[in-house]
Automatic annotation (TrEMBL), chains A, B:
Top-rank lineage group of the source organism: Bacteria
Annotated region described as Disordered, given as residue ranges: 473-493
InterPro entries listed in its UniProt record: ATP-grasp (IPR011761), ATP_grasp_subdomain_1 (IPR013815), CoA-bd (IPR003781), NAD(P)-bd_dom_sf (IPR036291), Succ_CoA_lig_flav_dom (IPR032875), Succinyl-CoA_synth-like (IPR016102)
Xref: Pfam families: ATP-grasp_5, CoA_binding_2, Succ_CoA_lig
GO BP, one annotated term: tricarboxylic acid cycle
GO molecular function: ATP binding; ligase activity; metal ion binding
Protein's recorded name: Acetate--CoA ligase family protein
Keywords of the record: ATP-binding, Ligase, Nucleotide-binding, Tricarboxylic acid cycle
SUPFAM superfamilies, A to Z: Glutathione synthetase ATP-binding domain-like, NAD(P)-binding Rossmann-fold domains, Succinyl-CoA synthetase domains
Species whose genome carries this gene: Neoroseomonas eburnea
Location of the ATP-grasp domain: 502-709
Amino acid sequence: METGVEEAIPGRSLPIARIVAPRSVAVVGASEDVGKFGGRVIHYLQKHGFPGRILPINPNRATIRGLPAYPRVSAAPEPADVAILAVPAASLEAQVADCAAAGVGACIVITGKLAEAGLEGAALQDRVLGIARAAGMRLVGPNCLGIFNPVDRAMLSSSLALEEDGYAPGGIGLVSQSGALMGTLLSFGRHHGARFSRCISVGNQADLALEDFLAFLLEDAATRAIGLYIEGLRDPARFRGLLRTARQAGKPVFIVKAGRSEAGAQAARSHTASLAGAFPAFEAVCRDAGAVLMEDPQAMVLACDAAIRLPRWPAAELGLAPIASSGGSTVTFADMLPGAGLRVARMSTATRAVLGRWMPESHVALPVDTGSFHEGTSGDGLSACIRAFMADPDVGAVVVPMTTQPDMAGRTALFPPLAREGGKPLLYLMTAGAVGDASRAVMRAADFPFFDRMSDALAVARALDAEAAGRLRAAAPPPARPDGAGPAPALPPGALTEGEAKRLLAAYGIPVTRERAAATVEEAIIAARAIGFPVVLKGVSRAVVHKSDLGLVRLKLRDEAALAAAFTEVAAALEAAAPGQAEGCVVQEMARGEAELFLGATHDPQFGPMVLAGAGGVLVEFLHDVRMAPAPLSAADARALIEGLRVAPVLRGLRGRPGSDVEAAAEALVRLSWLAADLGPRLVELDVNPLILRAAGQGAIVVDARATLTEETTR
Amino acid sequence: METGVEEAIPGRSLPIARIVAPRSVAVVGASEDVGKFGGRVIHYLQKHGFPGRILPINPNRATIRGLPAYPRVSAAPEPADVAILAVPAASLEAQVADCAAAGVGACIVITGKLAEAGLEGAALQDRVLGIARAAGMRLVGPNCLGIFNPVDRAMLSSSLALEEDGYAPGGIGLVSQSGALMGTLLSFGRHHGARFSRCISVGNQADLALEDFLAFLLEDAATRAIGLYIEGLRDPARFRGLLRTARQAGKPVFIVKAGRSEAGAQAARSHTASLAGAFPAFEAVCRDAGAVLMEDPQAMVLACDAAIRLPRWPAAELGLAPIASSGGSTVTFADMLPGAGLRVARMSTATRAVLGRWMPESHVALPVDTGSFHEGTSGDGLSACIRAFMADPDVGAVVVPMTTQPDMAGRTALFPPLAREGGKPLLYLMTAGAVGDASRAVMRAADFPFFDRMSDALAVARALDAEAAGRLRAAAPPPARPDGAGPAPALPPGALTEGEAKRLLAAYGIPVTRERAAATVEEAIIAARAIGFPVVLKGVSRAVVHKSDLGLVRLKLRDEAALAAAFTEVAAALEAAAPGQAEGCVVQEMARGEAELFLGATHDPQFGPMVLAGAGGVLVEFLHDVRMAPAPLSAADARALIEGLRVAPVLRGLRGRPGSDVEAAAEALVRLSWLAADLGPRLVELDVNPLILRAAGQGAIVVDARATLTEETTR
C-alpha cells in the first residue's frame, strides 16, 4: 500500500498522526481577546476540550486564559509538538526560526500574503521552508486555516466554525485547499448530523501537501470516507496511486476540483499559487481510480456522510424509488431525476404485486403516492412498499420526499429501521422549514442522514451511484497488452506525415488504409490499379496540418481519367501550400463504412498518457462530444468510453440502419492506448480523424491520422 | 385585461376575493382535539388571528374551543361565507347539500378519495358539484388542503405548516395542485424570510380551477409575484392569456410543471385526475408568454421572493460577479455557473480600474477573492468592488458566497444597502450551518433574501435571468403576417403527397424545389431538361411515408442515361412499395447548400398551432435538438429559436466554412407559423426535412416535405 506517512525520527520530522493529534501546542501571539486570532485559538482549544498541553506565547503577559504564558516558543518549558502561527508576514521568519531552534515538531502557519500574493511572498515562503527543512520541522500551510480533529478533541484553528458546541467525532476526513470553505462545511455538515474525523486545511502546501494528508487519512482508522477540495496537485502521479489505494482500503473518496470552468481555473491559479491542472484529464483519472468527482462542496459533505451512515448503494446505474404521501413532492422529485443523470426504478413483478395489495391496480406505478393507498392503510402500506423496493434488484435507493403532514416525527421514525433492515440507502427529504425540525431531531437521534433540499438528495444519489461504479471498477482486471501492439518504429521528432503516423498506428495493430506513394501521374495510375478504384489522392507535406482545407485531398476518384486530372490539380495545390516542402502524392484505398469516430492520444503533463474518443468528422468540433481515459485501458473500459458518447446511438444504428463495428473501434482504442503508454512524454499528440467503422463484424479502419512527437531527449 | 374574477351575485356565487378572505367560516366536523382535522382548522384560525366569525359544526357539543357550536351548517345563525369540510367521503354529499341549503358561499372540500381515486369517486364528485352549481355555491377542491391568506389572517387549512407562528403578510401568491407541497413551501419560505399573500391548494378543481385563482392573483393588490405548481390545466387557452396578462401587470410568474419526465407525467395523471399535457408545448407557451419554468419547487419559492425583495435583474443573458473572502467558495460557485446555463460577467475597463486600486493587478479577475486585497482594505475594498459591479453593464447580479469568517454578521450588514443603492440583485449565500444563523438573522432584520445553498442561488439566478428575458419579450411587437403568406389552397384530408405538401408551403411563400411529374422515361427526360441536370427522381404515393427507405429516391442524376436507368428502377420499386397506390414519378431540381434544418408544424391539443425547428437529417433523431414555439411567431423569435439550437454553430459556419442563410431559414419558419395558425386544428402535422440553407444571402429551399390534414369537419 502506497502511503505518505513517514516514520518519526525521534525529536524530528513529526509524523502526521502526531501533527493532527499533538500532545502540546504552542500558540504564537496568544491573547485574552477572542476577537484576536491568538485569543480564539486558545479559546477554541479549551472550549473543545483539548486534552494536551497549551503553551501561550506572548512576550507581554505572564498568564493567558489561566495558563502560564511564555515570551518565545524557545522559552517554553518543553518543545511543543505543534506551534500555530498567525503572526504578520514581517515577523514570520523570525518566529519560525525560533520554533525550529526550540525543536518544535511542526508549525501550522495561518499567516497569508505569501506565495499566493506574489513574488515577494513566494521568496519569504521559500526562506521559511528552508528554515523548517534544515531543522527537520514540518510545515502545514502557510495561508491555511489549521486542523480540526474531533476524534482527539484537537481543534487547531481560529475558524469561527468552532463557535459551535460539540463537534462529535465521526468518520469523514476532509482535506481542503480552502480553509474558509472547510470551516463552513464543518458547520454545514453538523446541521445534518454528519460527523468528522480530521479536517485539514493545507493552504499553500509549502511542505506538507494534500497528498500527504490523503495518505494519512487512508491509514487512519477513524476515517471511513474522504472529501477533498482541490485547486491544484503537487504530485499528480502519487495522488492517482492514493486514489487507487483508497479503493483497496474501502474508503470512498469524493472530490470537488476547482477550475472546471475557465473562470474557475483562472481564479484557482491566482488563489493559492498552485496550478489548476487540465480538468478533463483530472476527471478521467478520478473515474479510472474509482473516485467520485462532484460540483458542489456542500453536496460533497452530504455524500461522504451518506456513504458512512447509510447502507451501501448496491451497484451502478440502478433506479430510485420515490414514495411519499405527497404526489406533488414525489412527482417533482421524479421529474428532476433525468436532469441529474438518474432515473426512476423499473419495478419487478414481485414489487408490483406487493404494491397492488395497498392501492388500486391503476395507481401501481413509481413514484408512489401513498395518498392513493386504500383507506387506513398508510403506515403499514408504506413499510410494506419500502420493504418491497429494498428487495427489488433494480432499486438503488428509496427516496422519501416528505411534506408537512400529521405526526411527521412519528412517521419519520419508521425509516431508519427500514433502511437498516433492507440494506439499501433511504434518502429522507424534509423540505419544510422549522415545522420539520422535530422530524430532523428524530433523524439526528436515530443517527440517520436527512436532506433539506431535493437538489441535495439528487446530488448525493448521483454521487452514491458513481461511488458504486467506482467500487466495481476496482475489482476489474488491469488492462492487458493485446498481441502485436508495438513496439513503435523509429520515427523523426516533430510533426509526422500522414504516412508516418499511420505506420506508427499499424505497428500497434490498428488497421489503416492501404496507400502507395506516387511521384507522377503514371505512378499514381499503377498504384490505383493495385489498390483498386475508387481511390483517394492526397498531397503530402509535414508543413500542412489541415489538408482538405487546402485542396490537397480528392475523394472517390472512380477511374484513371479522374485520377489523372486530380493528380495535376493536387500537385499544383501542394506546391502552392507548402513551397519547397512538398513530399509528393499518395494514392489511398477509399474506405467506406457506417459511421466514423475521432480517436486521439496525448501525454498529459500531470497524469501521463491519455486517450480520447469522440464523434468523428465535423461533429467533434461542435458537439464537444469527447471522452478521455488514462492509457493503457482495458477492452471493457474502451467499450464503455465509446458507449458513453452522445453519438453512441448513431454507432449502434439509427432507424433500421445497420449498426457499426463498435467492438473494432474499441479494440483500436485499446491498441492506441498502448501506443500512448509506450511513447510516454515523447508523444505530443496523435489524432485519428476519422476512424471509419464498417458494419458490425466488418472492422474499422483509420482513414486519416496526424501526430507530433517531441525530441526524444527533451523530456 | 382578461381575468376570471366574477361579479358577486348577492348571496350567491361568492367572488374569489371573499372566498380567500371570508367574513365567516363554518368548520364542519369541529373538534376540541387538535389531533383531528376539525380541531386543527379551528385551532389554526384562532392561532393565526382570524378576524371573522368562526362557526364550529358538531352535532354533539354546545361549544368548541370556547365558541358556540351548531349541529349543522344550516342550523348556524348566519350563512357562512365559507364552509370547510374534511368529512368522510360517505357523508360529503349530505354535508354539501346542507351547506347549499344554508346559503353558504363556498365550500372548501379537503375530503379526498374522489375523482383522483377512480370512477366511484368521480361520480360522487360530479354529484357534489351538481349540488353546488344548482345553489350557486362555489367549490374549492375536493382533495385540496385549503387556503393560506396571511394578508387577512385567514388560514383556512389543517396543514401542519400552520404550527409555525406568525406568517407575516407578503407579496408571494401561490397556487398549487399539491396541498402538502404548498404547506411545506410556506414553511420553507419562512425560514428565508419570504412572505406570502395568498396560497391556494386547488385539489381536483371540480369547480374553481387554478386558472380562476391565477386570475384572482393578477388583480390582487397584495400579490407581486406568483408561483404555480401545475399538474394539468383545465383551460390551457385561458391560462396562456393569463400569463400574458401577468406580464402586462408586471407580476412575474414562476412555474413548476409536473410531468417533465415520463415517469413524472404518468404519476401526475394518476395523482389528481388531471391530464398532464405535453411538456414541450407547455414550455414553449410559457417562454412565449414570458413566464419562467423551473424544476424545483423550493427554488421556485426563493425565486418569487427574490423577484419581490431584490432589485430587478436588469436584462437577459448577463453575467454574474462572485466576490467573497474565500477563494474556495467563489471559485466553486463560478465553476457551477456554466452547468446552470449562466456565466461569469466580463468586467468593463472601468470596473477593472476600480479593482486595481484594492488588489495587485495580477489578481484582478472574476471571481474576486478579497483575500488578495492589499493589507487592511477588506471592508472598503469589498464595498468599492460591489459598487463597481453594480455599475458594470455586463453584470446581472453580484454574488457573495460567504464562508465562516470573523465578524460575519457585521460584514453581512454591508450588503443590503449596497444592493439597494446599486439597483441590481445581490445574491447573498450563507452556506455554513448554525454558526451562520447570526448572519441570517441580520438579513431577516434587513428584509433581505439569503441563500443556504450554492445550488439554490444558482437556480434563482437562472430564474431571474429568464424573468428578465420574459419582461423584454412582453415589450416586443406582436408577429406580423408577411406578404404572400397564404391563403392555403384546397387540399384533400389525410396524408398529402410530397407535391401537395410543397404546394401548401409555396402558398405561404416558402421556396420549394421545382418539380415536374413524369409518367414515362421520355417525360422525365423532358422535365429534366427544363429543370436542368443534375436532378432528383422520386416515386410518389401517399401510402408511403419514408420514401428513401424504400428505394423511391434517386439523387444527383447527372445525365439522361442515368435518369432513364433510375426511372425504370424507381417505377418498379414504387409498384412494389405501394401496389395499386402509385401516383407516378416526379423529377426535381437537385438543391445544394451549406447546411440543413428540420422544420415542423403541428396543432397541440392544449395550446393550438405550434412550429418546431431542429437539426436536419439524421441528427434530428439522435441529438433531440429541437425547439418549439407557438404559432404565429415573429421574425426575431424565429431567429432566436434557430440560434438556440445546439446545431447553430454549424449553421453559422465552422472552421472557415461559409455561414449559411439563417435569415432565410427564419423567414421560412415565420411563414410556416402562419400556415399552422391558419390551418388550426385541420393540421395534424407537417414536416420539412430537410430545408437546405444556402450560403448567407442565397436563401433556403424545401427539398422534402410531408403533411397530414384531418377532415375539415372533425374538429
